[in-house]
């Protein structure tokens, strides 16, 4: 659609495109003490548009932050994603707790150490870690007290121990930021958040195409009808529908028009029915091209 607008100079598409491509906003909620502000900072630092402060009914996607467990007062029913923060405090029990929260809430749940997800190491902190790595076990650290406090505030004990151990095992200091990110679990959270936002993206595409059809009807512009029927649009809708179904755990697999036509006629919700229609149409279009 953007390419069509640029090629034709059709200004009528500009507001439709603005609504279609505006950033997806994230509302981060959670009880005090769960680290919701740090989680919000981690998501914002990763490129998501996080609302601050989060209003009661704002945001395209709501993320609920919990610590240790979910409680009755947690509004899990309104969350697209649950983040179990401070996962390092649970140790080996973290995977089981994630599964329990997922079972109790019915929502996708992922663990996170938000403090590590927002941690930034400067040269002095890296140097302090290297000094700690050289210290003999059982002896006091030779790191300056003020620097040790800053190190603790940045990484907490879990992060300090993990990075010190890595350095002692021969890790290069330049690898520490990547190790911090791995320990934080941030990438898993971002993947889950992208999946949770799939229905929002699909809904925006549906709205944009509805607006485009209305414009085509009222203007009688044949070029707009051609745009709506072109392969690029059909396959883009198919791709967005695939993301929705995969986010809900369906094995989408290849382009099978018969399968998705049958699925769409089954006992599924309205969103899945529309997605099945998009996959059916896309599969037929791919078959024609083949």
Automatic annotation (TrEMBL):
It comes from the Bacteria. This is Uncharacterized protein.
């Amino acid at each position: 659609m953007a390419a069509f607008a640029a090629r034709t100079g059709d200004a009528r598409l500009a507001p439709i495109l603005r609504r279609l491509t505006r950033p997806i906003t994230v509302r981060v909620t959670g009880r005090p003490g769960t680290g919701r502000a740090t989680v919000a900072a981690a998501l914002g630092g990763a490129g998501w548009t996080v609302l601050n402060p989060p209003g009661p009914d704002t945001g395209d996607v709501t993320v609920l932050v919990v610590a240790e467990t979910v409680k009755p007062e947690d509004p899990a029913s309104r969350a697209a994603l649950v983040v179990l923060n401070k996962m390092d405090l649970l140790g080996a029990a973290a995977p089981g707790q994630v599964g329990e929260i997922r079972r109790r809430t019915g929502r996708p749940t992922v663990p996170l150490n938000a403090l590590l997800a927002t941690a930034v190491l400067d040269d002095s902190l890296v140097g302090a870690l290297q000094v700690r790595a050289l210290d003999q076990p059982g002896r006091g650290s030779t790191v300056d007290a003020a620097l040790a406090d800053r190190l603790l505030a940045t990484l907490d004990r879990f992060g300090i121990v993990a990075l010190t151990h890595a350095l002692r095992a021969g890790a290069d200091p330049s690898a520490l930021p990547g190790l911090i990110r791995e320990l934080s679990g941030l990438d898993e959270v971002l993947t889950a958040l992208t999946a949770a936002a799939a229905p929002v993206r699909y809904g925006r595409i549906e709205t944009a195409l509805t607006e485009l059809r209305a414009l085509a009807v009222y203007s009688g512009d044949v070029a707009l009808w051609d745009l709506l029927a072109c392969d690029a649009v059909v396959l883009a809708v198919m791709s967005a529908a695939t993301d929705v179904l995969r986010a809900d755990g369906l094995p989408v697999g290849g382009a099978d028009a018969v399968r998705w036509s049958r699925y769409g006629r089954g006992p599924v919700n309205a969103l899945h029915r529309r997605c099945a229609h998009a996959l059916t149409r896309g599969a037929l279009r791919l078959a024609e091209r083949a």
